[in-house]
Design brief:
With about 110 residues, the chain is mostly helical. It has one domain. The chain is built from four helices and no strands. The longest helix has about 40 residues. The radius of gyration is 20 Å and the shape is rod-shaped. The N and C termini lie far apart (about 45 Å). The model has no long low-confidence stretch (mean pLDDT about 85).
Length: about 110
């Protein structure tokens, strides 16, 4: 009889841990998508494919740098922030305790 409260507490902790990690992973992914969409709209670039490959945006920013566009440096800075968000998301999904929750919820590396 004494083990039932301990097991219930442990199950509650595991459930809450999974919910918090899942929420954190989803928030990081939404930040990445919002930043990517915002930069894409500012550049008026063609829509990106489903994989989220940002080489098209990099090429557009390089062409703006060559032509001397006044906002090219801010676009380059925003692209750096997007790359950082992508790296943070990928690290979060691959980190050991969080990778189990990511597999259970179907999250994958971008």
């Amino acid at each position: 009889m004494g083990f039932i409260p301990i097991l219930l507490t442990l199950a509650g902790f595991i459930l809450l841990f999974g919910m918090v990690v899942s929420y954190s992973i989803n928030q990081k992914k939404e930040q990445y998508k919002a930043a990517l969409l915002g930069l894409q709209q500012k550049l008026v670039a063609e829509p990106l494919d489903k994989t989220g490959d940002i080489t098209v945006l990099e090429r557009d920013i390089q062409s703006l740098l060559v032509t001397g566009h006044p906002d090219a440096q801010t676009f380059k800075r925003q692209l750096g922030q997007i790359k950082l968000l992508k790296h943070q998301y990928n690290e979060l999904v691959q980190t050991k305790p969080y990778s189990l929750v990511a597999k259970l919820t179907g999250q994958r590396v971008i």
